[in-house]
Amino acid sequence: MKVLLVRPKPWLVDHILNKPYQDKMDILWVRRYPPAGLAHCAAFLEQAGHEVKIIDGETLWLPVEAAQYEAGKFNPDLVIGQVNFMNPVDDHLYVSSVARTVGVPLVLRGHLGRNYPEEAALMDGATGVLTGKGLVSAVDVANVLENGGDLATVAGLAFRKNDKVVITGPERLGEPDSWPLPARHLLDNGAYMCLAVRRHPFTTLHGSGGCPHRCVYCIDSKTRYWARSPKSIVQEMEICRKDLGIREFSFLDPMFNITEERTAQVCEAIIKSKLDISFTIKARADVIDGSMAKLLARAGCTRVGIGIESGSEEVLGDLHREMSLGTIERAVQALKAAGIMVMGYVQVGNVGETWSTFSRTMDFTLGLKLDLIAVGVTIPLPGTEIHRRLLEEGRPDPWLIRLRVKPGTPVDAESMRPAGVDVGREKLEEWRDLLYKRFFMHPSYMRNIVFTRQPWVSMHRLPKVAWTNFRTRAKGFLEKQVFIHGGIV
Ligand code: SF4
Question: What is the chain's mean pLDDT, rounded?
Fold first, then answer.
Protein backbone atom coordinates (compact mmCIF):
# COMPACT_ATOMS: atom_id res chain seq x y z
CA MET A 1 0.00 0.00 0.00
CA LYS A 2 1.17 3.57 -0.69
CA VAL A 3 0.93 5.74 2.41
CA LEU A 4 1.35 9.50 2.40
CA LEU A 5 2.30 11.18 5.70
CA VAL A 6 1.52 14.89 5.93
CA ARG A 7 2.70 17.55 8.39
CA PRO A 8 0.66 20.72 7.77
CA LYS A 9 2.01 24.18 7.16
CA PRO A 10 2.10 26.45 10.24
CA TRP A 11 -0.72 28.92 10.51
CA LEU A 12 -0.61 32.65 10.41
CA VAL A 13 -2.97 33.09 13.32
CA ASP A 14 -1.74 31.94 16.70
CA HIS A 15 -4.82 30.49 18.35
CA ILE A 16 -3.36 30.82 21.79
CA LEU A 17 -2.37 34.43 21.60
CA ASN A 18 -5.14 35.62 19.32
CA LYS A 19 -2.77 37.49 17.06
CA PRO A 20 -0.49 36.91 14.08
CA TYR A 21 1.55 33.78 14.42
CA GLN A 22 4.69 34.66 16.32
CA ASP A 23 6.65 31.52 15.61
CA LYS A 24 6.76 32.23 11.88
CA MET A 25 10.22 33.81 12.12
CA ASP A 26 11.28 31.07 14.46
CA ILE A 27 10.33 28.28 12.06
CA LEU A 28 11.65 30.04 8.99
CA TRP A 29 14.95 31.31 10.37
CA VAL A 30 15.87 29.95 13.76
CA ARG A 31 14.67 26.43 14.47
CA ARG A 32 13.59 23.99 11.80
CA TYR A 33 13.36 20.52 13.23
CA PRO A 34 12.66 17.40 11.20
CA PRO A 35 9.24 15.76 11.75
CA ALA A 36 10.65 13.09 14.06
CA GLY A 37 7.32 11.41 14.77
CA LEU A 38 6.36 11.12 11.11
CA ALA A 39 9.82 9.84 10.16
CA HIS A 40 9.45 7.17 12.81
CA CYS A 41 5.94 6.28 11.64
CA ALA A 42 7.31 6.03 8.08
CA ALA A 43 10.00 3.61 9.26
CA PHE A 44 7.41 1.30 10.83
CA LEU A 45 5.32 1.40 7.64
CA GLU A 46 8.32 0.72 5.40
CA GLN A 47 9.39 -2.17 7.60
CA ALA A 48 5.93 -3.67 7.08
CA GLY A 49 6.37 -3.43 3.30
CA HIS A 50 4.40 -0.24 2.56
CA GLU A 51 5.64 2.48 0.23
CA VAL A 52 5.81 5.82 2.04
CA LYS A 53 6.21 9.51 1.22
CA ILE A 54 6.41 12.39 3.72
CA ILE A 55 5.20 15.91 2.94
CA ASP A 56 6.65 18.29 5.50
CA GLY A 57 4.43 21.31 4.91
CA GLU A 58 5.71 22.96 8.09
CA THR A 59 9.41 23.18 7.37
CA LEU A 60 8.99 23.70 3.65
CA TRP A 61 6.15 26.19 4.30
CA LEU A 62 4.11 24.43 1.61
CA PRO A 63 0.78 25.95 0.58
CA VAL A 64 -1.95 23.34 0.70
CA GLU A 65 -2.22 23.38 -3.10
CA ALA A 66 1.44 22.37 -3.36
CA ALA A 67 0.82 19.50 -0.93
CA GLN A 68 -2.20 18.49 -3.00
CA TYR A 69 -0.05 18.56 -6.14
CA GLU A 70 2.61 16.36 -4.53
CA ALA A 71 -0.04 13.99 -3.22
CA GLY A 72 -1.45 13.67 -6.74
CA LYS A 73 1.97 12.73 -8.09
CA PHE A 74 2.46 10.07 -5.42
CA ASN A 75 -1.09 8.75 -5.77
CA PRO A 76 -1.39 7.18 -2.30
CA ASP A 77 -3.92 4.66 -1.01
CA LEU A 78 -3.97 6.22 2.45
CA VAL A 79 -3.14 9.64 3.95
CA ILE A 80 -2.01 9.90 7.56
CA GLY A 81 -2.16 13.55 8.62
CA GLN A 82 -0.64 15.21 11.65
CA VAL A 83 -3.15 17.23 13.71
CA ASN A 84 -2.11 18.87 16.94
CA PHE A 85 -4.21 20.53 19.59
CA MET A 86 -2.76 24.01 19.11
CA ASN A 87 -4.47 24.67 15.77
CA PRO A 88 -6.55 21.54 15.20
CA VAL A 89 -9.08 23.04 12.81
CA ASP A 90 -6.49 24.48 10.46
CA ASP A 91 -4.33 21.36 10.62
CA HIS A 92 -7.35 19.23 9.86
CA LEU A 93 -8.37 21.44 6.95
CA TYR A 94 -4.89 21.04 5.43
CA VAL A 95 -4.59 17.28 5.75
CA SER A 96 -8.21 16.58 4.82
CA SER A 97 -7.85 18.74 1.69
CA VAL A 98 -4.88 16.62 0.67
CA ALA A 99 -6.75 13.35 1.30
CA ARG A 100 -9.82 14.61 -0.55
CA THR A 101 -7.77 15.57 -3.58
CA VAL A 102 -6.57 12.02 -4.02
CA GLY A 103 -9.85 10.49 -2.80
CA VAL A 104 -8.41 8.11 -0.20
CA PRO A 105 -9.05 7.45 3.52
CA LEU A 106 -7.62 9.89 6.03
CA VAL A 107 -6.22 8.81 9.39
CA LEU A 108 -5.28 11.47 11.93
CA ARG A 109 -2.16 11.29 14.04
CA GLY A 110 -0.68 13.64 16.65
CA HIS A 111 -1.42 15.26 19.98
CA LEU A 112 -5.09 15.94 19.26
CA GLY A 113 -5.94 12.27 18.89
CA ARG A 114 -3.86 11.37 21.92
CA ASN A 115 -5.71 13.83 24.15
CA TYR A 116 -9.12 14.16 22.52
CA PRO A 117 -9.70 10.89 20.63
CA GLU A 118 -13.45 11.19 20.56
CA GLU A 119 -13.53 14.73 19.20
CA ALA A 120 -10.80 13.92 16.66
CA ALA A 121 -12.66 10.83 15.45
CA LEU A 122 -15.70 13.00 14.71
CA MET A 123 -13.74 15.38 12.48
CA ASP A 124 -14.88 15.54 8.89
CA GLY A 125 -13.54 12.82 6.65
CA ALA A 126 -11.51 11.05 9.35
CA THR A 127 -11.58 7.29 8.89
CA GLY A 128 -9.75 6.86 12.17
CA VAL A 129 -7.53 8.55 14.73
CA LEU A 130 -4.32 7.12 16.18
CA THR A 131 -4.57 7.57 19.93
CA GLY A 132 -1.03 6.61 20.92
CA LYS A 133 2.33 7.32 19.35
CA GLY A 134 0.95 6.24 15.99
CA LEU A 135 3.72 3.79 15.02
CA VAL A 136 2.53 0.19 15.29
CA SER A 137 -1.08 1.39 15.08
CA ALA A 138 -0.30 3.19 11.79
CA VAL A 139 0.92 -0.11 10.33
CA ASP A 140 -2.12 -1.98 11.66
CA VAL A 141 -4.51 0.57 10.16
CA ALA A 142 -2.75 0.40 6.79
CA ASN A 143 -2.91 -3.41 6.86
CA VAL A 144 -6.58 -3.47 7.79
CA LEU A 145 -7.50 -0.95 5.10
CA GLU A 146 -5.46 -2.86 2.53
CA ASN A 147 -6.83 -6.28 3.40
CA GLY A 148 -10.39 -5.31 4.27
CA GLY A 149 -10.21 -6.23 8.00
CA ASP A 150 -12.01 -4.77 10.98
CA LEU A 151 -10.73 -1.46 12.42
CA ALA A 152 -11.78 -2.64 15.88
CA THR A 153 -8.82 -5.05 15.82
CA VAL A 154 -6.34 -2.14 15.70
CA ALA A 155 -4.97 -1.24 19.14
CA GLY A 156 -4.55 2.51 19.65
CA LEU A 157 -7.34 3.68 17.36
CA ALA A 158 -10.53 5.74 17.63
CA PHE A 159 -13.07 5.59 14.82
CA ARG A 160 -16.70 6.28 14.06
CA LYS A 161 -19.11 3.34 13.84
CA ASN A 162 -22.88 3.73 13.53
CA ASP A 163 -22.74 7.34 14.81
CA LYS A 164 -20.75 6.29 17.85
CA VAL A 165 -17.02 6.56 18.49
CA VAL A 166 -15.20 3.31 19.22
CA ILE A 167 -11.91 3.66 21.12
CA THR A 168 -9.74 0.55 21.17
CA GLY A 169 -7.15 -0.35 23.84
CA PRO A 170 -3.68 1.21 24.01
CA GLU A 171 -1.17 0.82 21.21
CA ARG A 172 1.28 -2.05 21.76
CA LEU A 173 4.71 -0.74 20.97
CA GLY A 174 7.09 -3.44 22.10
CA GLU A 175 10.65 -2.79 23.27
CA PRO A 176 12.10 0.54 22.06
CA ASP A 177 15.32 -1.18 20.97
CA SER A 178 13.33 -3.25 18.49
CA TRP A 179 11.84 -0.18 16.78
CA PRO A 180 13.17 0.66 13.32
CA LEU A 181 15.16 3.88 13.06
CA PRO A 182 13.35 6.99 11.74
CA ALA A 183 13.15 7.01 7.92
CA ARG A 184 15.34 10.09 7.46
CA HIS A 185 15.97 9.12 3.83
CA LEU A 186 12.43 10.33 3.10
CA LEU A 187 13.20 13.88 4.32
CA ASP A 188 14.80 16.88 2.65
CA ASN A 189 17.55 16.74 5.29
CA GLY A 190 19.28 19.89 4.02
CA ALA A 191 16.21 21.93 4.98
CA TYR A 192 16.62 21.31 8.71
CA MET A 193 18.74 23.57 10.82
CA CYS A 194 18.87 25.46 14.07
CA LEU A 195 20.85 28.63 14.63
CA ALA A 196 21.74 27.52 18.15
CA VAL A 197 23.29 24.32 16.81
CA ARG A 198 27.05 24.33 16.43
CA ARG A 199 27.54 21.78 13.69
CA HIS A 200 25.43 20.96 10.69
CA PRO A 201 23.92 18.87 9.28
CA PHE A 202 22.01 18.11 12.42
CA THR A 203 19.06 15.96 13.34
CA THR A 204 16.91 15.06 16.30
CA LEU A 205 16.95 11.78 18.16
CA HIS A 206 14.86 10.05 20.83
CA GLY A 207 16.85 8.22 23.50
CA SER A 208 14.04 8.00 26.03
CA GLY A 209 10.58 9.34 26.74
CA GLY A 210 8.19 10.01 29.59
CA CYS A 211 9.05 11.38 33.01
CA PRO A 212 8.24 10.32 36.56
CA HIS A 213 8.34 13.87 37.96
CA ARG A 214 5.16 15.83 38.55
CA CYS A 215 5.68 19.42 37.41
CA VAL A 216 2.15 20.82 37.21
CA TYR A 217 2.49 22.47 33.78
CA CYS A 218 4.31 19.71 31.91
CA ILE A 219 2.72 17.43 29.36
CA ASP A 220 5.29 14.70 30.13
CA SER A 221 4.63 14.78 33.87
CA LYS A 222 3.97 11.36 35.43
CA THR A 223 4.09 9.61 32.07
CA ARG A 224 5.62 6.15 31.76
CA TYR A 225 9.37 6.37 31.36
CA TRP A 226 10.95 4.29 28.60
CA ALA A 227 14.51 4.23 27.36
CA ARG A 228 16.54 2.79 24.54
CA SER A 229 19.80 1.09 25.35
CA PRO A 230 22.96 3.23 24.98
CA LYS A 231 24.11 0.73 22.33
CA SER A 232 21.06 1.33 20.15
CA ILE A 233 21.41 5.12 20.53
CA VAL A 234 25.03 4.99 19.40
CA GLN A 235 24.13 2.71 16.49
CA GLU A 236 21.61 5.29 15.29
CA MET A 237 24.25 8.02 15.61
CA GLU A 238 26.73 5.93 13.61
CA ILE A 239 24.22 5.36 10.81
CA CYS A 240 23.30 9.05 10.68
CA ARG A 241 26.99 10.01 10.62
CA LYS A 242 27.82 7.53 7.87
CA ASP A 243 24.75 7.85 5.62
CA LEU A 244 23.78 11.50 6.05
CA GLY A 245 26.96 13.11 7.37
CA ILE A 246 25.09 14.23 10.51
CA ARG A 247 27.41 15.98 12.95
CA GLU A 248 25.09 17.11 15.72
CA PHE A 249 22.09 15.54 17.44
CA SER A 250 19.37 17.20 19.50
CA PHE A 251 18.02 14.68 21.97
CA LEU A 252 14.24 15.09 22.19
CA ASP A 253 14.07 13.28 25.54
CA PRO A 254 12.00 15.37 27.97
CA MET A 255 14.66 14.66 30.59
CA PHE A 256 17.94 13.18 29.38
CA ASN A 257 19.57 12.80 32.81
CA ILE A 258 16.89 10.78 34.57
CA THR A 259 19.59 9.22 36.78
CA GLU A 260 23.36 9.63 37.07
CA GLU A 261 23.80 6.01 36.09
CA ARG A 262 21.78 6.22 32.88
CA THR A 263 23.49 9.49 31.88
CA ALA A 264 26.91 7.98 32.48
CA GLN A 265 26.05 4.88 30.43
CA VAL A 266 24.92 6.88 27.41
CA CYS A 267 27.90 9.25 27.62
CA GLU A 268 30.40 6.39 27.99
CA ALA A 269 28.89 4.62 24.97
CA ILE A 270 29.22 7.78 22.85
CA ILE A 271 32.81 8.34 24.02
CA LYS A 272 33.69 4.73 23.26
CA SER A 273 32.25 4.98 19.75
CA LYS A 274 34.82 7.71 18.92
CA LEU A 275 32.24 9.32 16.66
CA ASP A 276 33.05 12.89 15.73
CA ILE A 277 29.67 14.30 16.78
CA SER A 278 28.15 16.80 19.20
CA PHE A 279 24.80 16.71 20.91
CA THR A 280 22.40 18.80 22.96
CA ILE A 281 20.01 17.72 25.71
CA LYS A 282 17.35 18.89 28.14
CA ALA A 283 18.14 18.02 31.74
CA ARG A 284 17.02 18.52 35.32
CA ALA A 285 19.30 20.68 37.40
CA ASP A 286 19.09 18.51 40.51
CA VAL A 287 20.84 15.59 38.80
CA ILE A 288 23.74 17.66 37.48
CA ASP A 289 27.00 18.00 39.35
CA GLY A 290 30.58 18.77 38.36
CA SER A 291 31.49 15.23 37.36
CA MET A 292 28.35 14.72 35.27
CA ALA A 293 28.97 18.05 33.52
CA LYS A 294 32.54 17.01 32.68
CA LEU A 295 31.40 13.62 31.39
CA LEU A 296 28.74 15.23 29.22
CA ALA A 297 31.35 17.60 27.79
CA ARG A 298 33.75 14.71 27.06
CA ALA A 299 30.98 12.87 25.22
CA GLY A 300 30.38 15.91 22.99
CA CYS A 301 27.49 17.67 24.71
CA THR A 302 27.59 21.32 23.66
CA ARG A 303 24.37 22.69 25.11
CA VAL A 304 22.07 21.76 27.98
CA GLY A 305 18.59 23.18 28.38
CA ILE A 306 17.50 23.34 31.98
CA GLY A 307 14.21 24.39 33.49
CA ILE A 308 14.47 27.47 35.68
CA GLU A 309 10.78 28.35 35.43
CA SER A 310 10.75 30.88 38.29
CA GLY A 311 13.07 32.84 40.56
CA SER A 312 10.70 32.46 43.50
CA GLU A 313 11.13 29.49 45.84
CA GLU A 314 7.40 29.57 46.68
CA VAL A 315 6.41 29.43 43.03
CA LEU A 316 8.86 26.59 42.39
CA GLY A 317 7.19 24.73 45.27
CA ASP A 318 3.73 25.33 43.77
CA LEU A 319 4.97 24.03 40.45
CA HIS A 320 6.13 20.81 42.16
CA ARG A 321 9.60 21.34 40.79
CA GLU A 322 11.14 19.84 43.93
CA MET A 323 14.37 21.77 43.66
CA SER A 324 15.72 25.02 45.04
CA LEU A 325 17.18 28.07 43.35
CA GLY A 326 20.56 27.11 44.81
CA THR A 327 20.39 23.75 43.02
CA ILE A 328 19.74 25.47 39.70
CA GLU A 329 22.60 27.90 40.30
CA ARG A 330 25.06 25.10 41.08
CA ALA A 331 24.04 23.11 37.99
CA VAL A 332 24.48 26.14 35.72
CA GLN A 333 27.91 26.83 37.19
CA ALA A 334 28.98 23.21 36.80
CA LEU A 335 27.91 23.14 33.15
CA LYS A 336 29.58 26.44 32.34
CA ALA A 337 32.77 25.33 34.07
CA ALA A 338 32.76 22.24 31.82
CA GLY A 339 32.45 24.49 28.75
CA ILE A 340 28.84 23.58 27.98
CA MET A 341 26.40 26.24 26.87
CA VAL A 342 23.35 26.58 29.08
CA MET A 343 19.91 27.48 27.83
CA GLY A 344 17.40 28.35 30.53
CA TYR A 345 13.68 27.74 30.16
CA VAL A 346 11.61 30.30 32.02
CA GLN A 347 7.86 30.58 32.49
CA VAL A 348 5.83 33.71 33.06
CA GLY A 349 2.29 33.38 34.41
CA ASN A 350 2.83 30.65 36.97
CA VAL A 351 0.21 30.09 39.65
CA GLY A 352 0.22 33.10 41.99
CA GLU A 353 2.44 35.16 39.65
CA THR A 354 2.74 38.84 40.56
CA TRP A 355 5.10 41.61 39.53
CA SER A 356 7.13 40.78 42.63
CA THR A 357 7.58 37.07 41.76
CA PHE A 358 8.27 37.96 38.15
CA SER A 359 10.93 40.54 39.18
CA ARG A 360 12.65 37.85 41.21
CA THR A 361 12.53 35.53 38.18
CA MET A 362 14.07 38.25 36.05
CA ASP A 363 16.85 39.02 38.54
CA PHE A 364 17.60 35.35 39.10
CA THR A 365 17.67 34.52 35.39
CA LEU A 366 19.91 37.47 34.50
CA GLY A 367 22.21 36.64 37.42
CA LEU A 368 22.84 33.16 36.02
CA LYS A 369 24.58 34.62 32.95
CA LEU A 370 23.08 32.03 30.68
CA ASP A 371 24.02 31.61 27.05
CA LEU A 372 20.43 31.54 25.83
CA ILE A 373 16.93 31.69 27.25
CA ALA A 374 13.48 30.60 26.11
CA VAL A 375 10.67 32.39 27.90
CA GLY A 376 7.09 31.17 27.60
CA VAL A 377 3.78 32.28 29.02
CA THR A 378 2.30 29.32 30.88
CA ILE A 379 -0.63 27.60 29.20
CA PRO A 380 -2.70 24.69 30.54
CA LEU A 381 -1.57 21.93 28.21
CA PRO A 382 -4.02 19.01 28.05
CA GLY A 383 -3.57 16.35 30.68
CA THR A 384 -1.48 18.54 32.99
CA GLU A 385 -2.31 19.35 36.58
CA ILE A 386 -2.99 23.01 35.75
CA HIS A 387 -5.36 21.92 33.00
CA ARG A 388 -7.23 19.75 35.50
CA ARG A 389 -7.47 22.69 37.92
CA LEU A 390 -8.85 24.95 35.19
CA LEU A 391 -11.62 22.44 34.46
CA GLU A 392 -12.33 22.08 38.19
CA GLU A 393 -13.02 25.79 38.31
CA GLY A 394 -15.91 25.11 35.94
CA ARG A 395 -14.28 26.93 33.03
CA PRO A 396 -14.65 25.58 29.48
CA ASP A 397 -11.80 23.48 28.16
CA PRO A 398 -9.72 25.94 26.08
CA TRP A 399 -8.64 23.18 23.69
CA LEU A 400 -12.21 22.22 22.93
CA ILE A 401 -12.98 25.87 22.22
CA ARG A 402 -10.21 25.74 19.61
CA LEU A 403 -11.77 22.67 18.08
CA ARG A 404 -15.04 24.43 17.45
CA VAL A 405 -13.91 27.57 15.65
CA LYS A 406 -13.88 28.15 11.93
CA PRO A 407 -10.48 27.79 10.22
CA GLY A 408 -8.29 30.85 10.69
CA THR A 409 -10.46 32.28 13.47
CA PRO A 410 -8.64 33.66 16.52
CA VAL A 411 -9.88 32.59 19.95
CA ASP A 412 -10.04 34.61 23.17
CA ALA A 413 -6.54 34.29 24.62
CA GLU A 414 -7.85 34.66 28.18
CA SER A 415 -9.43 31.20 27.92
CA MET A 416 -5.87 29.92 28.27
CA ARG A 417 -5.18 31.62 31.59
CA PRO A 418 -4.46 28.90 34.17
CA ALA A 419 -6.40 28.76 37.44
CA GLY A 420 -4.82 30.89 40.15
CA VAL A 421 -3.23 33.38 37.74
CA ASP A 422 -4.66 36.86 38.21
CA VAL A 423 -2.49 38.70 35.71
CA GLY A 424 -3.95 39.11 32.21
CA ARG A 425 -2.42 37.52 29.15
CA GLU A 426 -1.36 40.83 27.61
CA LYS A 427 0.52 41.87 30.73
CA LEU A 428 2.23 38.50 30.96
CA GLU A 429 3.42 38.87 27.39
CA GLU A 430 4.77 42.32 28.20
CA TRP A 431 6.72 40.80 31.09
CA ARG A 432 8.01 38.00 28.89
CA ASP A 433 9.19 40.52 26.29
CA LEU A 434 10.80 42.60 29.01
CA LEU A 435 12.81 39.62 30.22
CA TYR A 436 13.95 38.86 26.67
CA LYS A 437 14.95 42.49 26.18
CA ARG A 438 16.86 42.68 29.44
CA PHE A 439 18.58 39.36 28.71
CA PHE A 440 19.73 40.23 25.20
CA MET A 441 20.84 43.72 26.28
CA HIS A 442 22.63 42.41 29.36
CA PRO A 443 26.41 43.02 29.44
CA SER A 444 27.13 39.32 30.04
CA TYR A 445 25.23 38.34 26.90
CA MET A 446 27.00 41.06 24.91
CA ARG A 447 30.32 39.79 26.23
CA ASN A 448 29.38 36.28 25.08
CA ILE A 449 28.64 37.54 21.60
CA VAL A 450 31.90 39.43 21.27
CA PHE A 451 34.37 37.18 23.06
CA THR A 452 33.09 33.66 23.46
CA ARG A 453 32.00 30.63 21.56
CA GLN A 454 28.27 31.29 21.31
CA PRO A 455 25.41 32.18 20.85
CA TRP A 456 25.86 33.42 17.33
CA VAL A 457 28.04 30.54 16.29
CA SER A 458 25.64 29.60 13.52
CA MET A 459 24.98 33.07 12.15
CA HIS A 460 27.19 32.28 9.19
CA ARG A 461 24.51 29.83 8.19
CA LEU A 462 22.00 32.58 7.49
CA PRO A 463 22.75 32.74 3.73
CA LYS A 464 22.20 28.98 3.52
CA VAL A 465 18.94 29.32 5.47
CA ALA A 466 17.89 32.13 3.13
CA TRP A 467 18.67 29.93 0.12
CA THR A 468 16.74 26.99 1.64
CA ASN A 469 13.78 29.27 2.31
CA PHE A 470 13.89 30.59 -1.24
CA ARG A 471 14.29 27.12 -2.75
CA THR A 472 11.43 25.54 -0.79
CA ARG A 473 9.10 28.53 -1.10
CA ALA A 474 9.71 28.73 -4.86
CA LYS A 475 9.03 25.01 -5.24
CA GLY A 476 5.83 25.37 -3.20
CA PHE A 477 4.75 28.37 -5.27
CA LEU A 478 5.33 26.57 -8.57
CA GLU A 479 3.53 23.45 -7.43
CA LYS A 480 0.63 25.57 -6.25
CA GLN A 481 0.38 27.22 -9.68
CA VAL A 482 0.51 23.86 -11.46
CA PHE A 483 -2.19 22.51 -9.16
CA ILE A 484 -4.45 25.54 -9.54
CA HIS A 485 -4.07 25.71 -13.30
CA GLY A 486 -4.87 22.06 -13.89
CA GLY A 487 -1.61 20.26 -13.45
CA ILE A 488 -1.05 16.65 -12.82
CA VAL A 489 -3.98 16.00 -10.47
S1 SF4 B 1 9.31 19.59 33.38
FE2 SF4 B 1 10.94 18.08 33.13
S3 SF4 B 1 11.15 17.14 35.14
FE4 SF4 B 1 9.18 18.18 35.14
S5 SF4 B 1 7.70 16.61 34.54
FE6 SF4 B 1 8.35 17.68 32.67
S7 SF4 B 1 10.04 16.51 31.84
FE8 SF4 B 1 9.74 15.87 33.96
Answer: 90
